[in-house]
Amino acid sequence: MLISAPSRMRRGPSLGSSTTADISSLCRGTLATVFSFYLAGKGTPLAGPIPSALLLAHVCSEWKRVTMLPAYRSFWSNIVVVNPQPFDFHLVKHSITLSGDLPLTVTFGAHQIMNRSGVAWATLQKLMKGASRWKNLSLNVVGTNFPQLPSLPSLECCDLGLTGAWHVDDIQNLCTSILRSPSLRTFIFQSPLPLPHECSPDLTTDISCPDWSRLQFLQLHHTHDDNHLAQILSHCTSLESLHIRLVPPEHALPSAEAIRIPNLRTLHLGPLEYRNTFLSRLDTPNLRALVISPGGARGVLGRDILLDFIDRVSKTSKLKSLAWCEVKDYPSPELLVDFFYHPSICDDLEELELQMPISDTFIEALRGPTQLPPNWRRIPIDRRFIGQPPPHNSPLLPQLKKLRLSGAAMVRCSPDQLGSLAKVRFGYKAGIGREALQQLVFQRLGPSAATPKRHPIGRPGSAGVLNERQDKEKLEAWLRDIDGVSFEAVEVHTDRAGGWLFTVTADRVGEL
Question: Does residue 390 have a cis peptide bond before it, meaning omega lies within 30 degrees of 0?
Answer without folding.
Answer: no
